Amino acid sequence: MNAIGISGGLLAVIFAIALVLFFRMRRLRPQMAGYATQRMCPACGLITPRSKAACLECGKSFVSDPPVRQIHK
Ligand SMILES: [Zn+2]
């Protein structure tokens, strides 16, 4: 019966799990960031960087991206 040894071991296990989760998140984050900076052209389907205002392949402008509200009068 060694309470300090048990709690110390438990702390080490928790620390190890936290470390694994941390590295797993770090590995995933660049992919997610890369995905967020790219978009698919609605016209031709080419993956285009979000920083571009228009598609590199077909030249379709992404400026008209905000949802168009169709108001029926
Ligand atoms: Zn396109």
Can you give a write-up of this model?
This protein has one helix and two strands. With 73 residues, it is mainly α. The chain has a domain at 3-37. It has a two-stranded antiparallel ribbon. It starts with a helix and ends in a 24-residue tail after the last strand. The mean pLDDT is 80. The site of zinc ion (ZN) has 8 residues, from loops.
List the helices and strands and how they pair.
Layout: H1 3-36, E1 38-40, E2 47-49
Antiparallel strand pairs: 1-2
The site of zinc ion (ZN) has 8 residues, from loops.
Tags for this model:
73 residues, mainly alpha, 1 helix, binds zinc ion
Short overview:
47% of the residues lie in helices and 8% in strands.
What is the tally of beta strands? 2
Strand line-up across the major sheet: 1-2
- Rg estimate, integer Å: 24 Å
Biggest sheet architecture? 2 strands, antiparallel
Task: Please work out how many helical segments DSSP would assign.
Answer: 1
Cofactors, ions, other ligands: zinc ion
Roughly how much helix do the residues carry, as a percent range? 40-55%
Give the oligomeric state of the chains in this entry, treating copies of one chain as homo and distinct chains as hetero: single chain
Tell me what portion of residues adopts beta-strand conformation.
5-15%
Question: What overall geometry do the principal axes of the alpha carbons give?
Answer: elongated
Structural class: mainly alpha
Mean pLDDT: 80
Distance between the termini: 79 Å
Q: H/E order of the elements?
A: HEE
- Low-confidence regions: none
